[in-house]
Amino acid sequence: MTQDLPPSGGYSEVRYRRYLPKRGPSGLVIIGGVAAIMTFGFYRVAQGNLERRELKRENLWSRIHLIPLLTAESDRDMYRRTIAAKNREAEIMKDVKDWKAGESVYNNTKYFTPPNYVAVPEDN
């Protein structure tokens, strides 16, 4: 019986190492890309914060400038309602002797003081 022996000169080299092509960017390139995207994102957030702050300031100043108009409108409405209530009271209490419409039924002004109105004529 004969024994199996390697061929003369030996077997050819066994290639056990993986020869894979490089796939994708390196870690340094990925980290640089992420840093660039984050920097751009933070820049956009900062710009948005500035814009939001400016809009909030503009909204505040518009409210400040509208306060006199809204106060005057509220005063006119309150005056109209007070006159209507006084006329209603005069109509309801017309049969009661010595009743003065709009006059307080209390003897002091501790709990309620009716508002005073100044009627300003409109310029035509």
From TrEMBL:
It is found in: Mitochondrion inner membrane. It comes from the Eukaryota. It is a single-pass membrane protein. Keywords: Electron transport, Membrane, Mitochondrion, Mitochondrion inner membrane, Respiratory chain, Transmembrane, Transmembrane helix, Transport. The keyword Ligase does not apply. The keyword Transport applies. One of its GO terms (cellular component) is respiratory chain complex I. The chain crosses the membrane at residues 26-46. Complex I functions in the transfer of electrons from NADH to the respiratory chain. Accessory subunit of the mitochondrial membrane respiratory chain NADH dehydrogenase (Complex I), that is believed not to be involved in catalysis. Belongs to the complex I NDUFA13 subunit family. This is NADH dehydrogenase [ubiquinone] 1 alpha subcomplex subunit 13. It comes from Phascolomyces articulosus.
